[in-house]
Design brief:
Elements: H1 2-8, H2 12-22, H3 26-31, H4 39-42, H5 46-76, H6 80-94, H7 97-113, H8 122-131, H9 159-192, H10 196-213, H11 223-234
């Protein structure tokens, strides 16, 4: 619950510290990702967001490799009873809403906040980042999996209502990511047909975004605000 409160107030660093103390396993990093996923992005902490989404992507990739190794070992050891469970686990992880969402938001942040001189290939490289794997591995939106686990929190809300809220919020997240993916894919495809004026405007916007990001100001300190609000609630 404390992680959730920190998320509401945008305390990104405190959420990270609590997650380290809890020592979340892989499944929990997916099922409890809702506690932290949108916080750095929506509060303008784009460096932290970029790092977090990159780490999530690496985690899902590692899980896929490890699951494939387990499948190979299961075949070698004639443990056929485990194979179906491993396949189902792999599909749920690969189609996790947070796996897909992290990739989409990371593509946006990478294009906006990586210095242009580090992007060899110019507009073609930018277009490739925006499009991602859409051509070779298009997202199957109907197969997206909601692996969130709300049972870890004690609540007076009925299970039926929690299920309804989960279904509603999952639909909203899916629409949110679908729209963002459609926009950046469209922009990337515009770049592919070499409309130089569009690319020039995109590069200018990226330069501006990068200059803002590299202006190393102190992070907004919300600790005192959080303590004040807490005192108000507990009076």
């Amino acid at each position: 619950m404390l992680c959730r409160l920190y998320g509401i107030f945008g305390c990104v660093e405190r959420i990270k510290e609590m997650e380290k103390q809890i020592q979340l396993k892989f499944i929990q990093k997916d099922s409890l990702a809702f506690l932290r996923f949108f916080t750095p992005y929506h509060f303008g902490r784009f460096k932290e967001a970029n790092i977090y989404y990159t780490d999530l992507g690496v985690m899902f990739d590692m899980n896929e490799r490890e699951t494939n190794e387990c499948l190979v070992n299961a075949y070698k050891n004639n443990s056929f009873a485990q194979i179906q469970n491993l396949i189902e686990f792999s599909e749920k992880a690969n189609n996790s809403i947070f796996s897909i969402g992290a990739d989409i938001l990371n593509r946006i942040l990478t294009v906006c906040f990586t210095p242009l001189e580090e992007k060899s290939g110019g507009e073609e490289k930018l277009a490739s980042i925006l499009i991602g794997d859409e051509k070779s591995h298009p997202i199957d939106w109907d197969k997206l999996s909601d692996n969130r686990d709300f049972s870890v929190f004690p609540t007076i809300i009925s299970d039926k209502l929690i299920k309804q809220l989960a279904e509603y919020s999952f639909t909203q997240m899916k629409n949110y990511f679908y729209l963002k993916n459609a926009i950046i894919t469209a922009i990337g495809n515009i770049g592919n047909i070499l409309l130089e004026d569009k690319i020039a405007k995109l590069e200018l916007a990226m330069v501006e975004c990068n200059s803002v990001l590299n202006n190393k100001e102190k992070d907004f300190e919300v600790g005192s605000l959080f303590r004040t609000v807490t005192r108000i609630f507990w009076r």
